[in-house]
Structures are given as structure tokens and as C-alpha cells.
Amino acid sequence: MLHVLDHPLAAHVITHLRDKTTKPATFRTLAYQISLLLAIEATRNLAVEDKLIETPLEPMHGRVLAHSPLVVVPILRAGLGMVQPFLDIFPDVSVGYIGLERDHATAVARSYYCKLPPLAGNTVFLVDPMLATGGSAAQALTVAKENGATAPRLVCIVASPTGVAEIERHHPGTEIYVAALDRELNARKYILPGLGDFGDRLYGT
Ligand SMILES: O=P(O)(O)OC[C@H]1O[C@H](OP(=O)(O)OP(=O)(O)O)[C@H](O)[C@@H]1O
Ligand SMILES: O=c1cc[nH]c(=O)[nH]1
Ligand SMILES: [Mg+2]
């Protein structure tokens, strides 16, 4: 199922990310901000448990996160720009890495790295800012499942309708969280209107 962020702050941040005059340092800050909003949305249904505490005035039953380790898996390299908010807000999180690179001519993703902690029984978030043809994310979901993930969630900043359809075709039922669903792909399989090459804009390459 596709979830599209619906929040004025998300709209504000994504517009500045798209703006071609935004420089890498600002781009990285904005990537952090939008990923934080996505992390909050994608964890809306995490389990909580009761905890008896005392405020300075009286005892009360509060709620805290139940023990449910999270694993965040960026798809290198651009996905690295989405990891930090997960590390900052969740107490019990580990990080895995899947390296995939699209061929510039064919747009087909090639795997060059994989290092994953145990995924079985954990809540797994694959993070990659751009869901274009969907080829990279579909491959990464397959790898995550082969390594024990049961229902890995996909968290992206900008998605194309083609990419969403590709995920639904290969991995039906995947929860997909995006900040924006854009119009289409161009002939070079870039998202329109999109924001250009995320990895290049993040790292100034
Ligand atoms: O949906 P797809 O058509 O597969 O395209 C999306 C992929 O392309 C980009 O990565 P890229 O291959 O440019 O590598 P990079 O992150 O190292 O720049 C992006 O970060 C996704 O991983
Ligand atoms: O529009 C796109 C498509 C793939 N990768 C990007 O960085 N941007
Ligand atoms: Mg790139």
C-alpha cells in the first residue's frame, strides 16, 4: 500500500529539495528533515507497552515503545542521506547496507555490496530517496527477504507511478512511504518533475 506524506512542512521541504539552485549543504539538511517526517510516518504502527512512572506530582501509566528492534537499510549511495533520522529518534536500531548502481545507459541496477545484520523477526525499513523504474528497490526487497525480513517497508522521498507499479508487481502488499508521487519518467528514466540525481546533489558529484 502506498502512503504519501500529507503535511505542509513536507511540501515546503520537498519544494526546496527540488529547486535546482539548492546547494549540497542545504540539500543534505533538507534530506534529513524530509526523512525524519517519513520515519515518523513509517513507524506510526510500532507496538507500545504500558509503563508505570512517577511525574514530579503523581504516579501515572505512560506508554513506551515495546522491544521491537528496527533495522534501517539504505540503498547505497543516495540512501545514506536518509539514515540519520532513524538513528536519532529510535533507541534500538541497527543498520545494514545494500549497494546498487543503475547503469547510465540501461537504467538497470547492478549489485556491488551487501552487508546486513539479522533481519528475521525485526522491523525492516529499506530507504532510498528515488523510486524511478523501481528496479533498484525491487532488487533490494528481494535481498532483504532472502535474508529473513518478513515484511520490509520501503521509504522513499520521490516516487514515479512506474516505480510504485513495479514494486506492487514484484512485491505485492509492500508498505511504501513517499513524500511525493510524481508524474512520469523521462527517456533516461529520471523522474519528472523530480529533483534530478539525488546522489549527485547530496554529495556534490
Ligand atoms: O528505481 P530505479 O530506476 O532503480 O532508480 C532509482 C535508483 O537510482 C538512484 O541510485 P543510483 O543508481 O544513481 O546510485 P547512487 O545512489 O550511487 O547515485 C537512486 O538512489 C535509486 O537507488
Ligand atoms: O530521477 C532520478 C532517477 C533515479 N535516480 C535519481 O537520483 N533520480
Ligand atoms: Mg545517482
TrEMBL record:
UniProt pathway annotation: Pyrimidine metabolism; UMP biosynthesis via salvage pathway; UMP from uracil: step 1/1
Record function comment: Catalyzes the conversion of uracil and 5-phospho-alpha-D-ribose 1-diphosphate (PRPP) to UMP and diphosphate.
Protein name: Uracil phosphoribosyltransferase
One of the GO BP terms on file: uracil salvage
Keyword Ribosomal protein appears in the UniProt entry: no
Start and end residues of each Phosphoribosyltransferase domain: 4-205
Catalyzed reactions: UMP + diphosphate = 5-phospho-alpha-D-ribose 1-diphosphate + uracil
Sequence similarity: Belongs to the UPRTase family.
Enzyme Commission number: 2.4.2.9
InterPro entries hit by this protein: PRTase-like, PRTase_dom, UPRT, UPRTase/APRTase
Originating gene: upp
PANTHER family cross-referenced by the UniProt entry: ADENINE PHOSPHORIBOSYLTRANSFERASE (PTHR32315), URACIL PHOSPHORIBOSYLTRANSFERASE, CHLOROPLASTIC (PTHR32315:SF4)
Enzyme class: transferase
GO molecular function: GTP binding; uracil phosphoribosyltransferase activity
Keyword tags: Allosteric enzyme, Glycosyltransferase, GTP-binding, Nucleotide-binding, Transferase
Cofactor: Mg(2+)
